[in-house]
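Input/output pair, single chain:
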Amino acid sequence: MAITEVDRLSAGKYLLLTTFRKDGTPMPSPVWVTRDDDRLLVWTAANSGKVKRIRRDGHVELAPCDVRGTPTGASVTGTAQLLDEVGTATARRLIAKKYPLTGRLLILGSAVRRGARGTVGIAIEPSTNS
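Output:
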């Protein structure tokens, strides 16, 4: 079986998620990543810049990276969309599963600090023709 982009991009600990400002300026962010079938899931603060940019335009670039956001592999384009409450709960659950200690602690801390609606899941589908 061939390795897919979802396999490759979800295999590492971090994903470099690049969103774009209105003027086209790229805004890269290293994020935790997990997979849900044929898509990638990330989880972030609902009021973050990347959420605002994805709400405006779901075009993103993706690459595996280290904690500092230094790419460690080839990048591909993709399409991101914000998830509803059920989808966000799925993203939280899968993040906690992939990152058992730190993920659970971060999710708990975020729930206390921001409340249930203070974070949002993002589903990303890498393009097959990048």
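The chain has four helices and seven strands. Helices lie at 5-11, 49-56, 85-98, 100-114.
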